[in-house]
Amino acid sequence: MTAKGKLYGIGVGPGDPSLMTLRAFEALQAAHTIAYPVKVRGERSTALDIIRRRVDVSGKDILELEFRMDPSDEVRQACRREAVAELAERLDRGEDIAMITLGDVSVYSTYMRIDRMVRDLGYETEVVPGIPSFCHGAAKAGVPLMIGEEGLAVVSYAKDNPDVANAFEGFDNVVVMKAFNSMGEIASLMERNGFSADDAVVVSNVGMEDEYIGPMDPKRRYGYFTTVIAKKGGF
Ligand SMILES: C[S@@+](CC[C@H](N)C(=O)[O-])C[C@H]1O[C@@H](n2cnc3c(N)ncnc32)[C@H](O)[C@@H]1O
Q1: Which of 5, 63, 143, 176 could form a disulfide with 95 if both were Cys (CB 3.0 to 4.6 A apart)?
Q2: Pocket flag, ligand 1, residue 101 (CB < 6 Å)
């Protein structure tokens, strides 16, 4: 009987391939298959672009897995079931699979749901952490996320997400992810909760071309890879 393969969930860091961990690099080199998530079939994968700059993927199977951002929970679950079935088929053939994620695997990534489903089917899995985008952004901006006994709230901007308002009400340090088209709203929340305009830094496309590290500019157009780091009282 063929030994079953193992699934690795790999955080590849936010952009600069030299920030991939050695463990990630080794697992990627050894894997038979590289799986990458997309929202729509045929979409470009930034995580795949990052690893291609360090890992020779020419002899490997590259597997696109579609996870649609459909409002219907049933559709999203069906995508996950389909992805798990594809992964299981390969694991049964004894293939080791590395499923890649931008940044860290535990930060807003589909991978952790897939990991649970695959483990529940009896396969072995391993999570290989990566550097989260807001940590690399803080390093680039030269700012502390928290110091001493301070706390930190990390939230994802979405129109009806009450966590964002709660974070600015309850925390002096706030990271807002998916902030690209919400600068105006974030600025008002800050003002309402005693933050000044200078208390925020925008970190956008960190480690990529067109990296922007600078003040919040409501008139500037930001891409999807944009995060706001705010600290009441300034950095
Ligand atoms: C689906 S989440 C993925 C988070 C990722 N797993 C991490 O550890 O950072 C996507 C959001 O992460 C942030 N992000 C990811 N890569 C980034 C980068 N290179 N620069 C700035 N923000 C980034 C942005 O806020 C983006 O909207």
Answers
A1: 5
A2: yes
